[in-house]
Design goal:
By secondary structure, this protein is of the alpha+beta class. The chain has two domains: about 1-40, N-terminal domain of TfIIb (Single Sheet), CATH 2.20.25; about 40-145, K homology (KH) domain (GMP Synthetase, Chain A, domain 3, 2-Layer Sandwich). The chain is built from four helices and six strands.
């Protein structure tokens, strides 16, 4: 079971800042654009999608013995203009840096994440169209040593 709770930080006033406590005991601040002391809840959905697919893809690439020196995932999402402002279009960009990275391994890992493993993506795909791309940035063998990756 996944759990989370939130508590309003200041009951008096118009602010909407909350402290989130996750089921695993982590804390973070949620806010709106006016208060600007933490991310908006919908931003966390985009971050959760980026994190979910990133965990899957890096795990698969490591199992395929790809020499990764850096990895990033960027998510952009368009929302409906009326409430509820659900995601309608999502663009995911994976940037993989490493030595002799196999394009097919990256494409396969992303496909497995999107079609089988990423629970956040599976939920968002119910309302939004996904567009996914990736880029491979070649690194030098010296970068492997600096990143602590075994060649």
């Amino acid at each position: 079971m996944i759990q989370a709770s939130i508590a309003l930080t200041q009951a008096a006033g118009a602010g909407r800042q909350f402290v989130v406590t996750t089921g695993s005991g982590h804390h973070l601040i949620l806010d709106d654009a006016v208060g600007a002391t933490g991310p908006k809840p919908i931003e966390l959905v985009a971050a959760a999608l980026a994190g979910c697919t990133a965990f899957d893809v890096i795990n698969i690439l490591r199992k395929k013995r790809q020499n990764i020196t850096a990895y990033e995932v960027h998510v952009e999402a368009d929302q409906c203009s009326e409430a509820p402002q659900i995601f309608t279009q999502v663009r995911i960009r994976h940037i993989v840096t490493g030595v002799n990275i196999d394009r097919e391994a990256v494409a396969g890992a992303i496909h497995l994440s999107e079609s089988k493993y990423c629970s956040v993506g599976a939920m968002i795909q119910k309302t939004a169209e996904f567009s996914t791309s990736f880029e491979i940035i070649p690194a030098q063998v010296a970068d492997l040593v600096a990143a602590g990756v075994q060649g």
